[in-house]
Amino acid sequence: MKYGPLLFLGILFTLASSWVGLVLAPYKQLGNLLPNPATNAVGGVSYLPEARRGEAQQGAEHYRSLGCVYCHSQQVRPAGFGGDIDRGWGKRRSVSRDYVHERPVMLGTSRTGPDLTNIGERQSDYSWHYTHLYNPQITSKGSVMPPYPFLFEKRRVGLGGVSTNALKLVGEFSPGEGWEVVPTDAARQLVEYLRSLKSSYDLPEAPLPKTAGEAETATAVQ
């Protein structure tokens, strides 16, 4: 056992190095990030990224609990490292500052479905999101995403007629004469979360690409 102390020190050094690399370094990098005061419009100042609040924050918990993170990512790779930007999944690469308010950060584990970093801008229509959650085959024929009918309530149409938030379902998906399908609170919160996923704002380390006209204006100002 003459090598016992050396073995102990080796194990201790390995664990300490891992802790520094996996815990301390990311904490120092992310813990000091502050909202970025960036001028994104003439005469206007935005503080980004903004913290998610209300039903959108509640929806994030549904997103996590339903396992959406196992099939969808929330990380746009830089140009040259895949076709994320070309696919329209985001206008710029994702950086650490984008996740400063996220608890937990839901980067995803695979891309069975498309990246959702900017889904709030790509698809902002409430009706589309509700219908897609109820049965993806209605909005995206051939999709491998499972349906989530338990996020909705099937009920009889009341005396006042069909509810304003009832899904417009026809054919094989119709609930039947005299019935309607409406989103539950969980469905509404989840959709609010999805619509809150937006990344089209400038950050110092990841500026939005500028059009030719915008580039000329910026040059002239300088």
Average the pLDDT over all residues and give the rounded result.
85
Care to count the β-strands? 4
Reported CATH architecture of the domain at 40-150 and 185-204: Orthogonal Bundle
CATH topological fold name of the domain at 40-150 and 185-204:
Cytochrome Bc1 Complex, Chain D, domain 2
CATH class of the domain at 40-150 and 185-204: Mainly Alpha
Individual helix count:
7
Which term fits the overall shape? elongated
Report on this structure:
- This protein has a domain at 40-150 and 185-204: Cytochrome Bc1 Complex, Chain D, domain 2 (Orthogonal Bundle).
- It contains seven helices and four strands; from the N terminus they run αββααααββαα.
- It has helices at 4-31, 54-65, 119-122, 126-134, 136-139, 185-196, 212-221; strands spanning 36-41, 44-48, 152-156, 179-183.
- The strands form two sheets. Strands 1-2 form a two-stranded antiparallel sheet. The chain has a two-stranded antiparallel sheet with strand order 3-4.
- Helix 2 crosses helix 6 and helix 4 crosses helix 6 (185-196).
